Amino acid sequence: MTAPESNQSVESLKDDIQRHVALTLGSDPFPPRKGRYYLGLCYSVRDRLLGQWLETQRSYYDSITKRVYYMSLEFLPGRFLMNYIQALGMEEECREAVRDFGLDLDELLEEEWNPGLGNGGLGRLASCYMDSMATCRIPGYGYGILYDYGIFYQTIVNGYQHEGADNWLRQDSPWVLRRGHFMFLINFYGRSEAYEDSAGHERFRWVDTESVMAMACDIMVPGHQNGHVTNMRLWKAISTRDFELEHFNRGDYIGAVQSKVESENISKVLYPNDTSPRGKELRLRQQYFFVAATFQDILRRFRKNNYSSFDCFPDQVAVQLNDTHPAISIAELMRILVDEESLTWETAWTICQKTFSYTNHTVLPEALETWSVELIGRMLPRHLQIIFEINRRFLDDVGKRFPGRVDLLRSLSLIAEDNGKQVRMAHLAIIGSHTVNGVAELHSKILKTRLFKDFDNLYPGKFTNVTNGITPRRWLMQANPALSELIGSVIGDEWIHDLSHLSELAAYADDPEFQQRWQEVRKRNKKLLARYVLRKLGVGINPATLFDMHIKRIHEYKRQILNVLHVITLYNRIRSGSVAHHVPRTLFFAGKAAPGYMQAKLIIKLINAVGQAVNGDPAVGNDLRVVFLPNYCVSQAEKLIPAADLSEQISTAGMEASGTGNMKFALNGALTIGTLDGANIEIREVVGEDNFFLFGHTEEDVHRLHSGGYDPVQIYESNIELKKALDMISTGFFSPEAPGLFRPIVDSLLAHGDYYLVLADYAKYVAEQARVSKCYEDPALWTRMSILNTANMGKFSSDRSIMEYARNIWKVSPLT
Ligand code: 7GP
């Protein structure tokens, strides 16, 4: 008698796990140990995916199809193991197999380290898009850098952020496939040399360069149960032989090793600033390194198809620039086409413009990248020449169309002159691309009407919007199995592939039985989180309280301070007994501050100090708790979000380009308190005004207040509760050991003009929070609102975003 198929597959999986423990890891499989068996399972799952991956890559070649190159200096994929298991549809099998060894799958999953190859929203978006490209069968690849050290590991010591090294590759990752045979030479420095070609034309070549090798390292990104596996190719810097030899020949052994180490530094570490790039030489090296390697790979594939001319390049290749970090690509492609392929400038430029598209992710002025002319000229001399030539032709053209408009030439030029000569990378990206998009409707509008207004006038139709999205596989199915199961039990599982099906849930919003099941799931998730917090922090929290979460990078524009002022206000009300009845709340904060951003780091300290005061005050009891969870990352978000009642999306209007955390919360049934900013606006539109807690000044108000007349001090003087909260911060109530510690925070709000308009929004925010509490006291109402949030989130699937990019920008179709 043959065993049933599932038994067979469980048995063969078990064999594979043990085989890998013994033969891949060289470990004794007995007794089964968690760490070893985790790796054994990883390799066994990986084996099952590799065939599909090879098949997918082959199908690209066979169908000679146009492919998308998603170029991003950051990716935040989160843990892979469960993602692969679910993509392969083998969760039950895996559970059973490891159970037979006396192990628990959920515990094994916790063994995996998060690849922190990104800072925040931009990197996580790239990973959601990879997931959707695979699931929607869009032919393409992700390209980036395999950093040895990802975003720093955050610990909180005495309330302060400490940064530790995130050596995620210390033990080889089972997910990274190193491709020693895909190595490209990358040049830097040297000079551009003019020469005459055989036809007597003046041409240029880049000579006397220093070089480094880029080695391809691949990570598979599977589609959901569709056999399609997309490749994410991350480059690692490897020193070149010549480089070493030069020193060896001089008998300088240590020098040889040192120069090897120095050249490999390129892929050593991710820059940990989310929105304010520093003009560091190493960062520009990283950008060019990954651009040059990626273009050699693109051209290798293009040539494989034996095209007679480069004219059809844009029919084969679409390159998406994820912000300006890869924008030097435009000069690089021009260099290849003009210098190496001998195309005319005009032909090359046409090809460029048809190939590139650019996504902007922020309007914060300090985040718009510029590189000094001096630095580019030294590191990439030929590219600087090309940039000057692009600019010359561009300004010529503008000058002809708008004679006498010197102001216009100055505002559009690729070169800014006010602060020493700087190359504006966004301008390069705009003029070198056929399409530029923002990431939510409001943000795209701001690009057109404010930030890049003159460009929009110049190129009508070039600017467009693609509202961000999130993958429902990771952010609902994987992160919230209990809710997924409940949803599946009433509307089936089609939402996994087509999130618009969630709308069928709306019919159950008032159904008492469904409401009860919904509440039970949410309670269970909150209990799980409470257990996690107890384990991590040793702090007990009560799952019956309202879970209020503010989790994202720490930045003044995201206004964690506004939230803290509300917490202090609640605290004061509780202490003074001025509220007859208070709805107990637990506040969750999590997020990293850029290591050099002092104000953000002080905000972390303040949150922790307020937490200490509140949590330790017997007068407060269980009514208010504040926790700061260290080392926010994708896995932590997956634990927090399914347990949230309230999602804080309270940025100054106009400043958060989109947000994607806002979508993850609403999808999981949390209600949002938010401003009219980024994608909040569109979320509110679909979930309905009644199911959203709105407050605060609009983007236009903000613009007006910034133009003059805003007086935060007057607001401070006239609002008793606000004044009290600020005075407590500034006089050392939360820092008795150093009373002046938090002065810089209060100064930014009072003495320095409160640029982020915290005080302007305080009263409305506190009032809306009171409405939150009131609604929470009515479980039937709250649950209805929660269900309707989930039910209406179909639009925010990254599948929808990716299909918009594919149709409107990349002009590629899904493989059949
Ligand atoms: C972020 C934006 O701040 C966020 O609003 C948006 O949802 C996300 O990109 C994805 O579009 N920006 C960054 O993470 C960032 O690093 C600087 O921007 C270039």
UniProtKB/TrEMBL annotation:
<protein>
    <recommendedName>
        <fullName>Alpha-1,4 glucan phosphorylase</fullName>
        <ecNumber>2.4.1.1</ecNumber>
    </recommendedName>
</protein>
<keyword id="KW-0808">Transferase</keyword>
<dbReference type="Pfam" id="PF00343">
    <property type="entry name" value="Phosphorylase"/>
</dbReference>
<keyword id="KW-0321">Glycogen metabolism</keyword>
<dbReference type="InterPro" id="IPR011833">
    <property type="entry name" value="Glycg_phsphrylas"/>
</dbReference>
<keyword id="KW-0328">Glycosyltransferase</keyword>
<dbReference type="GO" id="GO:0005737">
    <property type="term" value="C:cytoplasm"/>
</dbReference>
<dbReference type="GO" id="GO:0030170">
    <property type="term" value="F:pyridoxal phosphate binding"/>
</dbReference>
<keyword id="KW-0663">Pyridoxal phosphate</keyword>
<dbReference type="InterPro" id="IPR035090">
    <property type="entry name" value="Pyridoxal_P_attach_site"/>
</dbReference>
<comment type="function">
    <text>Allosteric enzyme that catalyzes the rate-limiting step in glycogen catabolism, the phosphorolytic cleavage of glycogen to produce glucose-1-phosphate, and plays a central role in maintaining cellular and organismal glucose homeostasis.</text>
</comment>
<dbReference type="GO" id="GO:0008184">
    <property type="term" value="F:glycogen phosphorylase activity"/>
</dbReference>
<keyword id="KW-0119">Carbohydrate metabolism</keyword>
<dbReference type="InterPro" id="IPR000811">
    <property type="entry name" value="Glyco_trans_35"/>
</dbReference>
<feature type="modified residue" description="N6-(pyridoxal phosphate)lysine">
    <location>
        <position position="664"/>
    </location>
</feature>
<dbReference type="GO" id="GO:0005980">
    <property type="term" value="P:glycogen catabolic process"/>
</dbReference>
<comment type="similarity">
    <text>Belongs to the glycogen phosphorylase family.</text>
</comment>
<comment type="function">
    <text>Phosphorylase is an important allosteric enzyme in carbohydrate metabolism. Enzymes from different sources differ in their regulatory mechanisms and in their natural substrates. However, all known phosphorylases share catalytic and structural properties.</text>
</comment>
